[in-house]
Amino acid sequence: MLNTDSNEPAATHSKDVLAEAQPGGGKAKPGRTRRVFTAVAVVGLLVGATAVGTTLPDPKSSDAYRALAGEKATVESDRDSAKSNYESMKSKYDTLQNGITAREAKVTARETEVGKADAAVKTAEAAMKVREEAVTGAEKTKAANTIGDGTWTVGSDIEPGTYRAAAAVASTCYWGIYRSGSNGSDIVENDIPGGGRPVVTLSAGLDFNSTRCGKWEKQ
């Protein structure tokens, strides 16, 4: 280290140092003189920097630093609070969203069930309609093939075929088969059965008369 207590000028001191650096105290060579001078200058700068560093104030102890630190703490607190609020709101949103999704799934399931029920109802209605049409057709056919008391011309009023009394007849039942156009004078066959369910066979070109015998059904 340099002798800071010396009262000699710095230039004189440097020359002495340079002289001492020469063996035998002779005159220093130019190259070596420059290297020694550079080393001395570096040491002087280090000493000066150390002296200045010991006199600089601590930046953390300043009011400005403390103010900035306080602002930083406030900003961090606001950030943490905002983050906490966001996470809370996000949690509530997720809960609501999950609830909505679950309800939408239930609604979709109900809609599917209703759709299936509607399809089943339509299928049943279609089957009922077919059945009704079949029954109606059968009833119409039965009605067309059912005759009551009166005189009927086979082939125009009623179809040819075999007919049977729909129920047991009374003793007052009379039936007769005549040649068409004979006005009942040309009898082919007749009977007073007196009971049971009589059967008659009717062909085209004949008239059939039924009196107090009830309904006759084509077989």
Keywords:
alpha+beta; 54% helix; 8 strands; 219 residues; 4-stranded antiparallel sheet; disordered N terminus; rod-shaped
Give a written overview of the molecule.
This protein is α+β, with helices and mostly antiparallel strands and 219 residues long. Among the domains are: 10-53; 147-218. Helices cover 54% and strands 16% of the residues. It contains three helices and eight strands. It has helices spanning 10-21, 30-53, 63-144; strands at 146-147, 150-153, 161-165, 174-179, 187-191, 199-202, 206-211, 216-218. The chain has a four-stranded antiparallel sheet.
Give the neighbour order of strands across the main sheet. 1-8-3-6
Low-pLDDT runs of 5+ residues are 1-25, 49-53
The rounded Rg comes to 67 Å
Subunit arrangement of the protein: single chain
Proportion of strand residues: 15-25%
> Strand count, sense and closure of the main sheet?
4 strands, antiparallel
The mean pLDDT is: 81
The global form is rod-shaped
Helix content: 40-55%
Summary, kept brief:
The chain has 219 residues and is α+β, with helices and mostly antiparallel strands. Helix content is 54%, strand content 16%.
Topology overview:
Layout: H1 10-21, H2 30-53, H3 63-144, E1 146-147, E2 150-153, E3 161-165, E4 174-179, E5 187-191, E6 199-202, E7 206-211, E8 216-218
Antiparallel strand pairs: 1-8, 2-7, 3-6, 3-8, 4-5, 4-7
